[in-house]
Design goal:
Structural class: mainly alpha
Distance between the termini: 33 Å
Order of helices and strands: HHHHHH
Helix content: over 70%
Shape: globular
Strand content: under 5%
Radius of gyration: 15 Å
């Protein structure tokens, strides 16, 4: 992949709906589909049990941020790097990785909020 291609999103950010996010995940990160389906089922069950839509809203927000990152190859690569450091590093490296992962997720949520206004 060329440097300029690595800076271009693979797909436009989809609307924050279950259907659109499912299609996006299937396209850009098919290996994540089992987790998507499992977490959707869990959120739906929690929503039914508590008569509350908050679990589904959290699910959509989480997966919208995931797509926001994964659709951008450079950000996806950076996230994978920090996840690996968190899993294999010492305590200080794991703390740094957690900080960097948090930064990436915060930026994704901020970008999503800006597009929804």
């Amino acid at each position: 992949m060329t440097t300029s291609a690595a800076r271009q999103p693979l797909i436009p950010q989809p609307p924050s709906t279950v259907t659109a996010l499912r299609q996006a995940v299937a396209q850009i990160a098919p290996a994540a589909m089992p987790a998507f389906t499992r977490e959707l089922d869990e959120a739906a069950d929690q929503s039914r049990q508590g008569s509350d839509l908050a679990p589904l809203r959290r699910f959509v927000a989480q997966w919208a941020a995931y797509v926001q990152i994964q659709r951008q190859p450079r950000l996806a690569e950076e996230l994978r790097h920090w996840e690996e450091v968190a899993a294999t590093g010492d305590a200080a490296e794991a703390r740094r990785a957690a900080t960097e992962i948090g930064r990436l997720l915060d930026a994704a949520h901020t970008a999503l909020a800006a597009t929804e206004q």
